[in-house]
Amino acid sequence: MYCRNCGAAMDPSAVVCIKCGVPKGSGRNYCMNCGAQTAPEAVVCVKCGVSLGAPNNSAPTAAGGQKSKIAAGILGIFLGGLGIHNFYLGYTTKAVIQLCLTILGWILAIPTLGIGFLLSSAMSIWGLVEGILILVGNIKQDGKGIPLQ
């Protein structure tokens, strides 16, 4: 076994390289199987053929990966009043506000002879507009800053 950072031979049970101090498996300069120098973007060692894994500079993604722009837009158009699209995108605070105001509108609809439905309707229009903005590309990222796909 060899250090991926400096190419020094390592004991297989070692946690860090004793030559450079880097944790085992860190680095992209050398093959861990044969010790040959590798290109940082290489996924396979050209000398021995062992897999080197994905490059470390791949685009960051959250658990679950990128969110779908189409799914978010459709959720906004059809269930936007409930804030479902915002829950999906990770905008939890905005989603809870939309959901609570919609439910409040439903609750107030009976004692106010239907006037409470105006509040629910306003939340639905808000969701519809956000759904359209997502689909046309004006909303480009989710709540964690990851671009929509």
UniProtKB/TrEMBL annotation:
The keyword Transmembrane belongs to this UniProt entry's keyword annotation: yes
Membrane topology annotation: Multi-pass membrane protein
Domain of life the protein comes from: Bacteria
Entries under InterPro entries matching the protein: DZR, TM2
Keywords, ordered alphabetically: Membrane, Transmembrane, Transmembrane helix
GO cellular component: membrane
Record keyword RNA-binding present: no
Domain DZANK-type: 3-49
Protein name, as recorded: TM2 domain containing protein
Biological source species: Ethanoligenens harbinense (strain DSM 18485 / JCM 12961 / CGMCC 1.5033 / YUAN-3)
